[in-house]
Predict the structure of Helicase ATP-binding domain-containing protein.
Amino acid sequence: MGFNRPSKIQEMALPMMLAHPPQNLIAQSQSGTGKTAAFVLAMLSRVNALKLFPQCLCLAPTYELALQTGRVVERMGKFCVDVQVMYAIRGNQIPRGTDVTKQIVIGTPGTVLDWCFKRKLIDLTKIRVFVLDEADVMIDTQGFADQKHSKKTQGRKKILEKIMTENFPYLAKDKNLEIQESQRSPNGKNTKNP
C-alpha cells in the first residue's frame, strides 16, 4: 500500500476505530492522506469471516468512488481469504431470492437504499461498521454553494436520513443529520460512543 508509517490522520483515527468497545468517529483530512486505508482497516478488523452476511457498509457518493474504495478493500484484505466485498452499485443486479453473503458492502446511496429497504437484502441491525465516505458531499445540508439542490442531491439526503435515523439514531437528531453532543479527540475531531 506504500505506507512506511501511519499518516497523521491514521495515527489519530486508528486507535479510536480499532478500540474495544468501538467508537464512532468523524474525521476530515485532505485527499491522499490515508483516510480510506484507515477506515478499510477498521472494517476488516471488525468482520467475522465465518458469518456470511453483510457486517460492514460503506456509502460512497459516486459509482467511481465506490469502485475505488472496493479496490482498496480487496488489496488490503487479500490475506483475509474468507472476507469478500459486494458492490451495491448501478448495474449490479441480484436475482430475487438470493441472499447477500459478502461481509463488506460498498455502494452508492440509491442502490444501498434499494437493497436495504425495498429488497431487504441487507439487515442493517447486523452492520458492525458503517462508513460515510465523503460525508460532506452526501450530506451537504446547508447548500450555500448552490442554492438549487438537484433531485440527485435531495435524494441522497433522504436516503442518508432514512438509513441513519432508523438504524443509527444516536448519529441523527430532529430531521437533520446533525451529530449529537460528542467527545473531542485531541485533534478536535468529533467522536461519539454509541
In short: Strands lie at 24-25, 56-59, 85-88, 104-107, 129-132, 183-184, 190-192.
